[in-house]
């Protein structure tokens, strides 16, 4: 039930999960067994590095895809499992984080008790819905559930005010839909229709499992779905959501009370414990539509909507028939998975989400070293230097903007491994036998922490990802780059590996996150995180022109039969990928190995650098998952995250002798270079 909301599109990837001491089978950091020697590197570099693996790898039944990220994720999960097993033997003292983590996990593992309860834990909430009599009652239920992280109708996020980034304000974002994106309600292609059918089947199941007869359930679903279609019509598209300016509307609560009176903002905010006189309404069109729908849709239909969506939110905390119903839709239909993950793995994910920094403390104590942190800092500093030189040498940017850009670059807050200050869990009561209420206790604690920040100075030490997460992010309102311990593992990073491997791996990730500070979104924020234009008009125009070329480039890549990459949706990530590899390369060239020519495994240092880059993106995905990714995810598919940046990067041409006629060749005057 815990959810983490980051401002859109900043993470390295939108999949979700280090340093472990397990010995690799050989000390070979380039897994040459994965390569395909029948492919010429200049024709398809991604397949040259990963093609051998691609031909034989079989996606596990429980997964929607596989590759380097899953490998690390599995390694991390095994480590976390060791922690849980050790804790179970230790019977830690009541009230310690060890006890909380151990008992939370144990409560989730007790499938006998959970199954015996059926949907008993949800009944008091369903009763509340049954007793709703008016619009006030609808809004009140929604508001109450927000405090348990059940984000019915909308999402709330507490973070820096984008135009006054030193102070926290609450932001309200559109929500309310059960399909992954508004377009799913309107697209008429067979793949979408299949997903819609699976969604309706799921909703129907939620009704029948909670005591509604088949015929009534089918009718209920149509009412709920019709209401969702009306919400979907008012939703901003995922491309519109990428523009920070058009998603910022700081509004006085008094004004909201008069413009959207049905919502009853004062009462709603009071129930949500939000104390403020102004809020940011991300998408006003959606909220005024909801305001209208509260009146134009019958209370009975609203109650069906709340019942379906409440059960959807808590399904995974109920008995296995609810869990399976949720999996049929979320796992099978949307992601192409065949089988539910084993319970222990799901419970590790749950514990990580619910007691994130409690589990995180135990994780880094055992699996992360200061050496790794120091080495990372050195890499980051070297990339920062390389980026500065790059800015100085840009031929399209004037001096005035350059000064500003460099200032921003040098203001990056660098976070590595885990937070300096841990979140407080002392008020959370966790008991071994009550999974459902354990989840609520954790959600309340996190929610209270979040709303407690409103109106206060921004605490720049806070983290938006848990330490074991295999991912990284840039956050424009803090101007920070963040690398959890989870991603600091091979093939991204290894203390024993040569520089080519680390710079082509985690170096590229560092460069990617840094470039987010200067992609089409990040460039709109200044060095302290305020949305403020620091560009000269001339430079801004040139920058936007270059962005357009990137959009066109990626629009040209086809993935599944007729499905092509969405250039506008993926623009920020693509700029970050293209910049990331270029900055990492320049930093690599400053190292001893970067200036050397000694071959390892038969490859020059430059070749190894590029091969490491292709190696980190080794990935295979189920069609269902790929389709959803293309529709909703701001990242391009792994293959194009490698091919496109390299097709436009001069040093790659030299390293692998790419010539006219090769499939990856792009004429020099057509190559795109932003950073
Ligand atoms: Zn990114």
Polypeptide structure, described:
By secondary structure, the chain is an alpha+beta fold. Among the domains are: about 30-55 and about 370-420 and about 465-670, 3-Layer(aba) Sandwich (Collagenase (Catalytic Domain)), CATH 3.40.390.10; about 135-315, Neutral endopeptidase, domain 2. About 50% of the residues lie in helices and about 5% in strands. It contains 25 helices and eleven strands. It has helices spanning about 45-55, 70-90, 95-110, 110-115, 125-130, 135-145, 190-210, 215-235, 255-260, 265-270, 285-295, 300-315, 320-335, 345-355, 355-365, 370-395, 400-410, 435-450, 500-515, 535-555, 570-590, 605-615, 625-630, 640-645, 650-655, and strands at about 65, 155-160, 165-175, 250, 280, 415, 475, 480-485, 560, 565, 620. Strands 2-3-5-4 form a four-stranded mixed β-sheet. The chain has a three-stranded mixed β-sheet with strand order 6-8-7, with helices on one face. Strands 1-11 form a two-stranded antiparallel ribbon. Helix 8 packs across helix 12 (about 300-315) and helix 19 packs across helix 22. The protein is globular. About 50% of the residues are buried. Mean pLDDT is about 95; it is low at about 1-10 and about 15-25. Bound molecules: zinc ion. Zinc ion (ZN) binds next to helix 19 and helix 21.
């Amino acid at each position: 039930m815990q959810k983490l909301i980051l401002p859109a599109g900043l993470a390295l990837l939108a999949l979700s999960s280090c340093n472990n001491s397990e010995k690799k089978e050989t000390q070979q950091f380039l897994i040459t067994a994965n390569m395909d020697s029948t492919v010429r590197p200049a024709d398809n570099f991604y397949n040259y590095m990963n093609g051998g693996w691609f031909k034989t790898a079989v996606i596990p039944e429980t997964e929607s895809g596989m590759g380097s990220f899953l490998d690390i994720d599995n390694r991390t999960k095994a480590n976390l499992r060791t922690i849980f097993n050790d804790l179970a033997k230790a019977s830690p003292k009541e009230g310690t984080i060890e006890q909380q983590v151990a008992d939370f996990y144990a409560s989730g593992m007790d499938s006998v008790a959970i199954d015996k309860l059926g949907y008993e834990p949800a009944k008091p909430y369903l009763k509340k819905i049954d007793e709703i009599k008016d619009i006030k009652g609808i809004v009140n239920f929604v508001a109450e559930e927000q405090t348990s992280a059940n984000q019915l109708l909308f999402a709330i996020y507490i973070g820096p005010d984008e135009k006054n980034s030193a102070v926290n304000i609450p932001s309200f974002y559109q929500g309310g839909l059960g399909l992954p994106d508004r377009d799913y309600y309107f697209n008429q292609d067979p793949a979408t229709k299949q997903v819609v059918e699976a969604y309706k089947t799921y909703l129907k199941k939620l009704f029948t499992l909670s005591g509604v007869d088949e015929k009534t359930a089918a009718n209920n679903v149509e009412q709920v779905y019709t209401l969702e279609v009306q919400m979907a019509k008012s939703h901003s598209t995922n491309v519109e959501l990428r523009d920070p300016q058009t998603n910022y509307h700081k509004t006085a609560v008094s004004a909201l009370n008069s413009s959207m009176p049905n919502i009853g903002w004062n009462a709603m905010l009071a129930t949500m414990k939000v104390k403020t006189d102004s809020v940011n309404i991300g998408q006003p069109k959606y909220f005024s539509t909801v305001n209208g729908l509260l009146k134009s849709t019958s209370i009975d239909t609203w109650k069906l909507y709340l019942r379906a969506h409440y059960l959807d939110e808590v399904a995974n905390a109920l008995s296995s028939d609810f869990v399976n119903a949720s999996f049929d839709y979320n796992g099978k239909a949307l992601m192409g998975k065949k089988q539910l993950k084993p319970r222990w793995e799901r419970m590790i994910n749950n514990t990580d989400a619910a007691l994130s920094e409690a589990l995180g403390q135990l994780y880094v104590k055992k699996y992360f070293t200061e050496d790794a942190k120091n080495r990372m800092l050195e890499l980051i500093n070297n990339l920062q230097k390389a980026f500065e030189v790059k800015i100085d040498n840009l031929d399209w940017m004037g001096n005035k903007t350059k000064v500003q850009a460099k200032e921003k670059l040098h203001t990056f807050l660098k976070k590595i491994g885990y937070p300096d200050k841990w979140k407080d869990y002392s008020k959370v009561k966790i008991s071994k036998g009550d999974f459902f209420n354990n989840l609520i206790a954790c959600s309340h604690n996190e929610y209270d922490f979040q709303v407690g920040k409103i109106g206060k100075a921004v605490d720049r030490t806070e983290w938006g990802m848990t330490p074991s997460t295999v991912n990284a992010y840039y956050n424009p309102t803090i101007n920070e780059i963040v690398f959890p311990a989870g991603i600091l593992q091979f093939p991204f990073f290894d203390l024993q590996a040569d520089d080519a491997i680390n710079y082509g791996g985690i170096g590229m990730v560092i460069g990617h996150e840094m470039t987010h500070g200067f992609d089409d979104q990040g460039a709109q924020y200044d060095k302290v995180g305020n949305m403020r234009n620091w560009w000269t008009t001339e430079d801004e125009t040139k920058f936007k022109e270059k962005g357009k070329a990137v959009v066109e480039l990626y629009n040209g890549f086809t993935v599944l039969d007729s499905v092509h990459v969405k250039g506008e949706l993926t623009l920020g990530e693509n700029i970050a990928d293209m910049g990331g590899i270029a900055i990492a390369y320049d930093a690599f060239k400053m190292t001893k190995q970067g200036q050397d020519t000694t071959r390892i495994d038969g490859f020059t240092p430059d070749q190894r650098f590029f091969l490491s880059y292709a190696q980190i993106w080794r990935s295979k995905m189920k069609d269902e998952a790929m389709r959803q990714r293309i529709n909703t995810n701001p990242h391009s598919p792994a293959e194009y995250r490698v091919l496109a940046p390299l097709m436009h990067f001069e040093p790659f041409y030299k390293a692998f002798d790419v010539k006219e006629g090769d499939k990856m060749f792009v004429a020099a005057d057509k190559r795109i270079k932003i950073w």
